[in-house]
Write the structure tokens for this entry.
Amino acid sequence: MSATVSAVSPPPGRRGWHEDSAAILVGAALVGLALAVGWAFRPTADAGSRERYPKGWPSALSSTINKPQTWNASPAEALADRKGKPVGAAILLGLGWVVAVSAAGAVLRGHAVARVIPGAAVLGLLGALAYLLAAQKVIHYYNLEYPLWALVVGLVIGNTVGVPSWLAPALQGEYLIKTGLVLFGAEVLFSRLLELGLPGLLTSWVVTPIVLVATYLFGVHALRIPSRSLCMVISADMSVCGVSAAIATGAACRAKKEELSLAIGLSLAFTAVMMVAMPPFIRLAGIDPIVGGAWLGGTIDATGAVAAAGEILGRDLGDKRPAEVATTVKMIQNSMIGLIAFAVAVYWSGWVERGTAPMARSLAAEAWLRFPKFILGFLGTSILCSALFTTSPETALLVDGAIAGFTGPLRGWLFCVGFVCMGLQTVFRELAPVLVSGRPLLLYVLGQGLNLALSLAMATLTFGWLFRQGAGP
Amino acid sequence: MMPRLGGTLRLATAALALAAIWLGVLPAVGRWPPVARHVRRMEEGGVNPAAMVYSELDRLPLRPRWAAEELALWRVARDGVENR
């Protein structure tokens, strides 16, 4: 936490909800709103047709939220989408949703709403600036995602002019990120785990936990990195799926802002390099295209970068299969985030933090007390939407439409503004000792090396041999 | 007053540097043939490399048809039995 910003507490005499409870209620209400509006305005013709609605039913709420579009030479290009449709009003409305979520959080937590709204609007504008920086085409197509620029915007302001006193009440970064994670739960559909059957499950579910645990233990015991939460966040973003996994596990193990910033920076830097370097390596090494696709999906951190690398490899080989296998393997990894965040939260509250706090209650009671409750909201929306998704073709299209049209974009805004808040509250000099030691970088590199080796071995075993039709023993 | 003025100057300098990079350097980098080719490929392929999760991809990877023919998705190894 920055020395320039004090924590904002409810006024004396007013008792508010816990941050996690507020995040669960607001996040669940927004998911419920998206599903209810989607159902109320459901199409009357071909309602169960995936061919007609490939990304789900169009959501009536989609016109109320958007973000700056990709641009090349002039930021003015960001105000129209690829079809030339203006998006300026929807960007402003998206900013309005951020203000509304901030205000709802303030009410539930017993803070003065009037003091929060002006600051939330300014933070929303800074979030829009971060989105604008991320939307420049070179930045966008090399996967330098918006969280990085949101942190940069916050860091630059926080470390030059500091945080003005009127803005401090609106700095609810952790609440916004937790609310975003509850919304994110709706996107983590368990049925996606089965898209590639056993080969996909084995590549994701065997390698990923092994790499995650091995990297974490290596960081703690061999490299002796003092912060266990830093080791966990680096291990998760490297082994699971980049920034989204870092956010979820970082919240589950209560990582410091500086640690999450560092892990995200490492992940994005290596992702950009791997996205460009791995496809030509696979081609030159003569690796089977399907195995190569699975390898890309299992190792490159970010989902979008996996799709890009798969596209590069597929174009070079004149084969669409690598891109499809790569993105599907990564999608299976995406679907693991909820369970991994839950496991990390249980491990942290039951074992790691137990060693630092005096035991006044039973082990289970202590663990429950420290357990980050918002994870339950994350899992709850995930289970609800997974159940709806598998109920019927219509409800599957309802869920997809609600995600694509509303909860997904809003989750992006909440993360973006949450990262601006984190940047504003991070002091450069607190990052310096961690950066100078070089050990986090070494942990990432060694962990990624293990990930590359194990993923290639498992992809070769499953996609290239055991489960290949006609190629099995 | 001096520290505050110094902070404002540092912020203005940083803002100018960001503006110069985003409005001058990056568009120039984007015209460099390898980078321009990469951007064109991604645009033509409808790929969103900035997607944080699969739901942000322009095309959802839904069980490709060829996979059922080329991969034994649920086969128990060695005994040749397929479960689906």
